[in-house]
C-alpha cells in the first residue's frame, strides 16, 4: 500500500504564454520555496490523456490508444528554473507537440528522481534508485506528481495553465508474515561493493503446512523467477470474494470475470498446498529490483552487478539456512515465465551443479538470431527490414490472430522518451543493461542507436558470447551436457505476442541433435499467446496461474533420479 502527501517544497508549472501560442511555447517550471531546498535530478515527464478513466501516468504504454508523453532530463533543477518542452522534444505516440491536436485533455506531470551512484569501479552514474515499487516510475516512492487536471489545449488560443507537482508518493509498507508466507531480507556484500552503497534482496517465502510444527524437517526449494513481486502471489487461504468487481479482460476474451478466476486459482492452490499428498517444500519469489529494472535477470552483469553469484551463492544458502532448506543442488528447482523463463534457464545453464531442473515458459529471447524478430548478428537495423526501394517496420506485438498493436521502433521510442542512457526501466533497456558491456561513461553500451535502430555489431558480439543461451549451450555442450541432462524444459505458445517462440525454434534445432542428448522437453501451445507454460488441458488464461504446482510431478521425478545415496527423502513428506 502506498500513500501520497503534499510536498510543499516543489512546484512544477506547465505554462502557456499570454500571446498567440505555438506548440513550442510549452514550458515546465520548477519552483522550490526555501533557499536551502536541494536541487532535483531526474526525468520530468509530461502526460496528456484523452480521457480520465485513470490518472494519465497510468495510461502511458506503447499501444495505439495510449496517453501522449514527453520527457526531459533535469540536473540541478533549482528554484525558479524553467525547462521548455517545445516542438523539438521527443514524444510518444506523437513525436512532437506539433502532433498533438487541439482538444480537452487530462494532464499530469511526474518527476522521476535520480540518485548519484559511485560505483565500485570508480564510475559515477545517475540512476533511479530502487525504492520499493519495482522501478515503476508511476508508483516509485519519492517521485513527485501533480494532481490530474483538465486542460483545453489549443495552440491558437492565448492563456496560461500551471500544473503543480505537489504530491510525493509515500513509502511502501513492508509485507507482514503470515502462517504460510514469510519474508526474508538479505544484505549482499557483493552487490553493495559493486554499487557503492548497501544493497538488499528480499525473499517472499511460501512455507509448507505445519512448518513450525516440524522443526526436524528440511525441505526442497523452488525458485519462482519473474518480475518484481510486492509479496508472494497466487496464494489465497479464503474463497473468492462474493462481491468481486468483474470487468472485461482485454487480453483473455474468454474470461468474463478474470479477477474471480485469479482468486479461485489462488484458493485452489492453497487447498492443494495443505492437502495430505502434496509434497512439503519451500517456494520463494525474489525481489532483486535495481536501478535499471524491476529485477536483475539473475545473472552477473557488467552494468547491474554480480546478481547471479549473489543469488546462487549467498542469498539462497542464507534463505535455506533460515527456513530449513535441504541446501543441495539436487533439491533446488527453477521456474518462471517470460523474463522469469529466461532467468530460470540462464541460472540453470550458468550454475549447472546448483540446480536440478529449469522449467522455462515463454522465455525472453534465448537465441539472439531471433531477438523477437531481429537477428542482431546479421541485420543492420533493429527497427526496419530494408530493401533496394524502401523499408518495412518490424512488428513489436501481435495477438493470436497476428494483428499488430505496435512496432519495435514504437517501443524503443517510448523508452527513449521515458529515459536516456538506458534509464527508462523498459524491456529493451533492461536487455541492454544486462547484456551489454559498460561504456566509458559508466552506462551500458547501446546495442543499437535508440533513435535510428542501427545495430552495433561489436556490442552484438558481446551479447552472443556472454548471454545468448543457444550459442553458449552449443559452444560448451560437451562440458555442460553431463551436468544438464534432464534439466532443461521449455514451453511457449506458437503465437506468443512478442514472437518469443522464434528463438525457441532455434534452440530446439540445436537440442534435438545435441549429443549427448539433453533429456528434457520442448512443447508448443497451438495458437497460444504469451505466456503459455505447458498446460494443454486449460486455456492460457488459467494455465499461467498454475506455475507453483503444475511442475511438481516432474520435480519429484528429478529428485528421485538425482538425490545421492543417503539423501533426506522423508522428513519433508509428512502428511
From TrEMBL:
Coiled-coil region(s): none
InterPro entries reported for this sequence: AB_hydrolase_fold, Mycobacterial_A85_antigen
Organism of this sequence: Sphingomonas mucosissima
Top-level taxon: Bacteria
Name this polypeptide is given: Esterase
Lineage start: Bacteria, Pseudomonadati, Pseudomonadota, Alphaproteobacteria, Sphingomonadales
Amino acid at each position: 500500500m502506498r500513500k501520497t502527501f503534499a510536498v510543499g517544497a516543489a512546484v512544477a508549472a506547465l505554462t502557456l504564454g499570454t500571446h498567440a501560442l505555438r506548440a513550442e511555447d510549452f514550458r515546465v517550471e520548477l519552483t522550490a520555496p526555501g533557499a536551502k531546498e536541494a536541487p532535483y535530478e531526474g526525468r520530468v515527464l509530461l502526460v496528456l490523456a484523452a480521457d480520465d478513466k485513470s490518472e494519465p501516468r497510468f495510461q502511458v504504454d506503447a499501444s495505439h490508444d495510449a496517453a501522449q508523453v514527453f520527457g526531459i532530463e533535469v540536473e540541478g533543477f533549482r528554484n525558479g528554473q524553467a525547462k521548455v518542452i517545445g516542438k523539438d522534444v521527443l514524444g510518444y505516440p506523437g513525436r512532437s507537440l506539433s502532433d498533438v491536436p487541439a482538444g480537452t485533455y487530462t494532464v499530469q506531470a511526474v518527476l522521476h528522481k535520480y540518485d548519484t551512484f559511485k560505483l565500485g569501479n570508480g564510475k559515477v552514474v545517475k540512476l533511479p534508485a530502487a525504492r520499493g515499487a519495482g522501478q515503476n516510475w508511476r508508483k516509485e516512492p519519492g517521485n513527485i506528481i501533480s494532481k490530474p487536471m483538465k486542460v483545453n489545449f489549443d495552440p491558437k488560443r492565448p492563456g496560461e495553465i500551471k500544473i503543480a507537482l505537489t504530491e510525493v508518493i509515500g513509502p511502501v509498507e513492508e509485507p507482514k508474515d503470515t502462517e504460510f508466507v514469510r519474508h526474508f531480507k538479505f544484505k549482499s556484500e557483493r552487490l553493495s561493493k559493486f554499487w557503492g552503497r548497501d544493497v538488499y534482496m528480499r525473499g517472499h517465502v511460501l512455507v509448507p503446512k505445519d512448518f513450525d510444527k516440524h522443526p526436524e524437517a528440511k525441505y526442497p526449494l523452488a525458485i519462482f523467477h519473474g518480475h518484481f513481486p510486492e509479496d508472494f502471489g497466487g496464494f489465497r487461504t479464503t474463497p473468492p470474494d462474493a462481491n468481486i468487481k468483474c470487468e472485461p479482460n482485454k487480453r483473455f476474451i474468454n474470461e468474463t470475470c478474470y479477477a474471480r478466476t485469479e482468486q479461485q486459482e489462488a484458493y485452489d492452490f492453497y487447498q492443494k498446498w495443505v492437502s495430505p499428498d502434496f509434497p512439503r517444500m519451500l517456494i520463494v519469489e525474489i525481489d532483486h529490483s535495481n536501478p535499471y529494472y524491476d529485477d536483475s535477470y539473475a545473472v552477473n552483469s557488467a552494468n547491474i552487478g554480480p546478481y547471479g553469484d549473489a543469488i546462487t551463492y549467498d542469498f539462497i544458502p542464507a534463505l535455506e539456512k533460515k527456513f530449513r532448506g535441504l541446501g543441495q543442488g539436487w533439491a533446488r528447482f527453477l521456474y518462471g515465465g517470460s523474463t522469469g523463463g529466461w532467468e530460470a534457464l540462464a541460472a540453470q545453464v550458468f550454475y549447472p551443479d546448483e540446480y536440478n531442473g529449469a522449467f522455462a515458459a515463454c522465455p525472453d529471447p534465448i537465441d539472439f538470431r531471433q531477438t523477437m524478430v531481429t537477428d542482431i548478428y546479421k541485420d543492420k537495423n533493429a527497427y526496419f527490414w530494408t530493401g533496394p526501394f524502401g523499408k518495412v517496420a518490424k512488428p513489436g506485438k501481435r495477438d493470436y490472430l497476428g494483428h499488430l498493436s505496435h512496432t519495435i521502433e514504437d517501443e524503443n521510442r517510448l523508452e527513449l522518451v521515458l529515459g536516456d542512457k538506458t534509464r527508462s526501466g523498459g524491456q529493451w533497456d533492461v536487455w541492454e543493461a544486462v547484456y551489454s558491456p559498460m561504456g566509458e561513461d559508466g552506462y551500458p553500451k547501446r546495442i543499437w542507436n535508440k533513435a535510428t535502430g542501427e545495430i552495433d555489431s561489436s556490442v552484438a558480439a558481446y551479447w552472443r558470447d556472454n548471454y545468448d543461451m543457444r550459442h553458449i549451450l552449443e559452444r560448451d555442450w560437451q562440458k555442460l551436457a553431463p551436468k544438464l541432462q534432464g534439466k532443461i524444459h521449455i514451453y511457449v505458445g506458437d503465437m506468443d505476442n512478442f514472437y518469443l517462440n522464434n528463438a525457441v525454434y532455434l534452440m530446439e534445432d540445436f537440442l534435438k541433435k545435441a549429443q549427448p542428448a539433453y533429456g528434457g522437453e520442448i512443447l508448443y501451445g497451438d495458437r497460444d499467446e504469451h505466456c503459455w507454460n505447458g498446460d494443454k488441458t486449460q486455456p492460457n488464461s488459467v494455465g499461467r496461474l498454475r506455475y507453483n504446482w503444475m511442475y511438481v510431478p516432474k520435480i519429484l521425478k528429478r529428485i528421485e533420479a538425482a538425490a545421492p545415496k543417503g539423501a533426506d527423502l522423508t522428513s519433508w513428506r509428512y502428511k
